[in-house]
Write a structure and sequence with these properties.
The protein is an alpha/beta fold. It has 11 helices and 7 strands. The strands form 2 sheets. It has a 5-stranded parallel sheet with strand order 1-2-3-7-6, with helices on both faces. The longest helix has 24 residues. The chain starts with a helix and ends in a 21-residue tail after the last helix. InterPro entries: DH_E1, PDH_E1_Alpha_Subunit, THDP-binding.
């Protein structure tokens, strides 16, 4: 089995590998939905079908020694960055083979070998942490970058404005990515936010900003490359607004009955998997037959992952007291 780092390298420039990772995320989330219904997922869980291009596009541009802060809707980000399906599913199912030993669960994943700092269930919590990581890189004289991925709802909280303001003042090497998937939990953006283009809020902080098509991995890579190059060269932060749409409800308890009729179907015409498939077929890299083979193979692979995680042991009560502190050697 490949390590997280090896899986991360696979998608750097290989367009087919990028598509396969997107298919992996989609199939993974579909299986999580079934496992949740069967009572095999501990607590709640939040799925990201429809946002695969954004997740993989971000990972393809960053280096493993950059750091990423994601939200509770973080399965796709974790898989895109390189975590194995076993480590992610094991964590979601509360098993010891999970990336955090099964004590974090669906909303709290971490793997520093590929730069994934713990995902957070607190809305917008990753914004100031990413700025803090960027400050550390700046002080250390490194060219690494910090990345915060957050939803449209988080752009209305104080940490968003505080984080952007501080990053702008100190020209921190940080990229703020607003995953505007139209809904903040159960509320449509037009009912909570007085503007449509959230990236324009960066004007208040004299920060470069733009929006991009989050359903198109090529657009994501292009925008990310621009922002990353600016950050690495000392040009400071960028706010990117990725226009996406979540195909599932807020959480598995949410049937999304509040959506206007036809809205989901309209967005599904821009399904990131379909957009990517069309591009790969047009360029001659894949055929419809190969696409179907990739999808069928992934279904088989995911069943193997489920079997492995189902058989894995659960953590003991003592596990919750591990990884709380580490001894520090006294300096001479």
């Amino acid at each position: 089995m490949k390590t997280s780092l090896q899986r991360r390298q696979d998608i750097k420039t290989d367009k087919i590998a990028q598509y396969e990772r997107m298919v992996e995320i989609r199939e993974f989330e579909e299986q999580i939905n079934a496992l949740f219904a069967a009572g095999l997922v501990r607590g709640s869980t939040h799925l990201c079908q429809g946002q695969e291009a954004l997740d993989v596009g971000i990972a393809a541009v960053l280096r493993p020694d950059d750091v990423v802060l994601a939200t509770y809707r973080g399965h796709g980000v974790a898989l895109a960055l390189g975590l194995t399906p076993e480590s992610v599913l094991g964590e979601i199912m509360g098993k010891t083979n999970g990336c955090c030993g099964g004590v974090g669960g669906s909303m709290h994943m971490c793997d520093m070998s590929v730069g994934l700092l713990p995902t957070s269930a607190i809305v917008g919590a990753g914004i100031p942490i990413a700025a803090g990581a960027a400050l550390a890189f700046q002080v250390q004289g490194k060219d690494n970058v910090g990345v915060a991925v957050f939803g449209d709802g988080a752009s209305n909280i104080g940490a968003f404005h505080e984080g952007l303001n501080l990053a702008a003042i100190w020209k921190l090497p940080v990229i703020f990515i607003c995953d505007n998937n139209v809904y903040g939990e159960y509320s449509r953006i037009n009912t909570t936010t007085p503007i449509e283009d959230l990236h324009t809020r960066a004007e208040s902080y004299n920060m470069p900003h733009f929006s991009l098509d989050g359903m198109d991995i090529a657009a994501v890579e292009k925008g990310m490359t621009e922002a990353v190059n600016r950050a690495r060269s000392g040009g400071g932060p960028t706010l990117i607004e990725a226009k996406t749409y979540r195909f599932a409800g807020h959480s598995r308890a949410d049937q999304a009955l509040y959506r206007p009729a036809g809205e989901l179907e309209q967005w599904q015409k821009r399904d990131p998997l379909k957009v990517t498939e069309e591009g790969l077929v047009a360029s001659g890299l894949l055929t419809p037959e190969k696409i179907e083979k990739i999808k069928s193979d992934m279904k088989v692979r995911m069943q193997e992952v489920i079997e492995t995680c189902s058989a894995a042991p659960e953590p003991t009560l003592a596990s919750m007291f591990e990884n709380i502190w580490t001894p520090v050697k006294a300096s001479k």
